């Protein structure tokens, strides 16, 4: 309990500092800049934002790091039909000597005739493991230490307005896996329990007419991806997955700056033994906020969320969100009684008003769990 009180006080302190910073930035029009404004200038420009990242998780202790998003559009590109591209990354270090580095980017070519979408991640981070299934118990919790390397590269060609077809390549390696002695992972020995390497092609169909890919106010996003992964050193070590991500953004309110957003997401394992660290899951900073990362894992996930985003003066905003979802070993076994819920609210500060880019602080609540998130750009 004392730790929770300390953590909440620390987060309250961060919010108060943010509010002070925001009130100071409102005076930017004055000739004489305050010390606070000069400090803010280090972290934001018209085309990039840098934000400190601070969090606590029992499995990692305190996490400190920095998140960066750089937005750009080449000068010779048509601004009427070519959206802004971006490169983003986070570098995080924990007091337990763990590291996470995850650069990714989306690049639109002129007139969006072609598009590149890439992710390159390196992490030496532990993962809590509770067993497989949507009824796994908190009592089974154990810490699995591992290092992971992940590469995802997709290339798209526009086949008609806002509709793209793409092919890509994906590679992932989980190495240096250290299990707890006599723990559940060693007892069950699911695929990937002692590490693995896998790689393979992917194919995508994507419809995207969002007005802003980092903070959409209107439009739709539909992405269907089929992946086939071949495990190294195994004759029959292939597995395939289908991922479907659909999102919709509308402004049905009198104030057109207020947004109602919705998302439905599915991940299905079509065949093969999927490594436990690749399984569908409940719990992340993007979907089912409020649960520890990958709290529940299994072959399939089905769920969604809605979010209301309300703008306030001085580049502030507040949001409320709710989600439902669950994992299952078979698509036909999803049961309403087992669905996990996610509820929460958050604070926003528009750090790049020109590009409508926010820093977000969210607090999510799930079944017997709650989590804070501090990040750049919206969850979806």
Describe the overall structure.
It contains 3 helices and 19 strands. The protein is mainly beta and 380 residues long. The two termini are 32 Å apart. Strand 10 (219-231) and strand 11 (238-250) form a beta hairpin. The chain folds into 2 domains: 1-43; 116-376, membrane protein fhac: a member of the omp85/tpsb transporter family (Porin, Beta Barrel). The longest helix is centred in the first third of the chain and has 24 residues, at 2-25. The strands form 2 sheets. The protein has a 17-stranded antiparallel β-sheet that branches. It has a two-stranded antiparallel ribbon with strand order 13-14. Residues 1-33 and 39-43 have low confidence and may be disordered.
Tally of alpha and pi helices: 3
CATH class of the largest domain: Mainly Beta
CATH names the topology of the largest domain as Porin
Largest sheet: 17 strands, antiparallel
Compute the CA-based radius of gyration. 21 Å
Number of domains: 2
SSE string: HHEEEEEEEEHEEEEEEEEEEE
CATH architecture annotation of the largest domain: Beta Barrel
Strand content: over 45%
Q: What form results from the Cα inertia axes? A: globular
Topology:
Layout: H1 2-25, H2 35-43, E1 48-57, E2 61-72, E3 85-94, E4 99-101, E5 104-108, E6 114-129, E7 142-160, E8 163-178, H3 184-188, E9 196-208, E10 219-231, E11 238-250, E12 259-271, E13 280-282, E14 296-298, E15 300-311, E16 316-328, E17 340-352, E18 357-366, E19 369-376
Antiparallel strand pairs: 1-2, 2-3, 3-4, 3-5, 4-6, 5-6, 6-7, 7-8, 8-9, 9-10, 10-11, 11-12, 12-15, 13-14, 15-16, 16-17, 17-18, 18-19
